[in-house]
Amino acid sequence: MNDNNGKTFKFEHAWRVLQVCPKWYQQYEAPVSFSRPISSPQSHDSPTLGGSASSPSDGEPLQRPEGRDKQKAKRSGKAKVSKLDPMMTQCLQEMIEQGREQASRRAKRDELQHKAVESEITRNQYDLLAADLSKFSPRKQRWIKQKQDEIMGYSQNSSSDVPDTPAEEVYRPHFDF
C-alpha cells in the first residue's frame, strides 16, 4: 500500500469498505509470527484484521469467494467434472439398459398376445367350418353358410336379406301393404 510513487491514494473511501471483505484479507493481513504453534486456531489459513469487529470469530476458517472466471465456468457448465459424474453416468447407462429390456419384454408380450388373438380367430373359423348346419334354423344356416364362404374366400352376394349376425340377435319387422 506504500508503493504510491509519491501520489496520494484517491480511493480511500472505497478501501475502508473493501479492507474488511474476505477477498482482501490474505493480501493485507498482519504478519504471522513464527513463535505460534502450527496447530493453533489462528494459523495462516484464518487471517484476522487486528481485532476488527467485522472479522470472523476465533477458530472459524474464512472462505475466499470464487473468482470471476470460476463463476463464469460454473454458470456455463464448464466447471470441473466432479467425482460423482462417473457414478451418475453408470447409473444412467443402467437405466437405459433396463428401459431397453422392458421394451423388448413388452414387444415379446405384445407379439404373444397377437398370436393368441390370431389363434382364437382361427379356432372360431374352424368351428364355423365344422358346424353341423342341420341343427340350426334356415335363417341361421344361411348366415353360417355366408360366413363359411367368407372364410373360404368366396365372395358371393347371393341375397341382401342375410344378416351379418345370427337371426336370434337381429329383429327386423316386415310390413306388407
Automatic annotation (TrEMBL):
Protein name: No apical meristem-associated C-terminal domain-containing protein
Record field: compositional bias (Polar residues): 36-57
InterPro entries linked to this entry: NAM-associated_C (IPR029466)
High-level lineage: Eukaryota, Viridiplantae, Streptophyta, Embryophyta, Tracheophyta
Basic and acidic residues composition bias: residue spans: 61-70
Biased composition (Basic residues): 71-81
Domain No apical meristem-associated C-terminal, chain residue ranges per copy: 7-151
Region feature (Disordered): 35-86, 151-177
